[in-house]
Design goal:
37% of the residues lie in helices and 15% in strands. By secondary structure, it is of the alpha/beta class. α1 (3-9) packs antiparallel against α2 (50-62), α1 runs antiparallel to α9 and α3 (74-82) runs parallel beside α4 (99-109). It binds pyridoxal-5'-phosphate.
Length: 380
Amino acid sequence: MQFRTRAIHVGQEHDPATGAVVPPIHLASTFVQPDASMTSAYDYARTGSPTRHAFEKTLADLDGGVRALAFASGMAATHCATLLLAPGDEIVTGTDIYGGTWRLFNRVLAERGIAVKAVNTADTAAVARAVGPKTKLVWVESPGNPLLTITDLAACAEIAHAVGALLACDATLTTPALSRPLELSADIVMHSATKSIGGHSDLLGGALVVRDTDLGTRLHWLQNATGAVMGPLEAFLCSRGLKTLELRVLAQSATAQRLAEWLVAHPTVTTVHYPGLASHPGHALAMRQMSAGGTIVSFEVNGGVDDARRVVESTKLFQLAVSLGAVESLIEIPAVMSHGSYAPEARRAVGIADGLIRLSVGLEAFEDLRDDLASALPRA
Ligand SMILES: *Cc1c(COP(=O)(O)O)cnc(C)c1O
């Protein structure tokens, strides 16, 4: 079956008790056991619950995995994956990554004995040079955030596996609708379900998806032991989000592509980062790994930080807020907002200009979004 059919039907069978077409939301925290020796499908909702399980089943199928685990947030999912490591182990990661992941790796894990080495993962040779016998996890994000750099996932998987490490990919920006890293030999896919999967800026959630049953069992053990699971209401909303995921992400990507092309031609826009542009250094690779350029565009304008601030404070449809991937368009300045948790030197070193502007393109009409930007951008 095709992606969008599976998004609607896998794991979302009608309720046998009532015939309800939409599976009910099970709020129960505990489940009656048939006898004291306990062998039923559910016992306690931290370990597993029917509504969470339905979402996990659909997502695993869409990502080409054998198991998905749903968490309270994207960061909870990422944190759980890093619990596979022990002090003395090393993570090799990208420089163009989500600000909160940078903070978890460099401020939480590094202070607890896990070495963190950051390289530009769009440079495959740099990744190969960075890994060593202590590397247990290679963590990449493609497209990167906020510079939309493209990392060769299949090449990174080979490099990671050659030293016995796992490759994990934060696929929040692509979702399984645009790219499926497990099919390119990644071991773990991570999603912030808060973004495109939920899709309506009304929930927090995260997920890990794997293609190896044993790895899934280890991660589930860690998830159950640490407890940051997704609640049933969020799981229900995520299942609903998945049903329209492909439609939304493809439509939003098409608008993002047109806006990126329009920005390139604008007289006061200096640099545009968007993998769907032929001028993007990772364009050819992006078109092999992704079925569209994605919903995020970043760019710089003539002038300095103050001019960038005026832009983000003047748009009406593009609302000034962090987060991304939802139906409403958002605008922000990564240096002071989404990536404010980077150390300033680290942020400049990786090329995030203080005046860089990031757009999350929603489902509004292209013409309205274009006119909104046109009235906010500096005059030539
Ligand atoms: C938002 C985001 C996260 C973190 O997810 P939360 O749900 O906010 O915890 C991780 N990676 C990327 C790329 C994100 O956009």
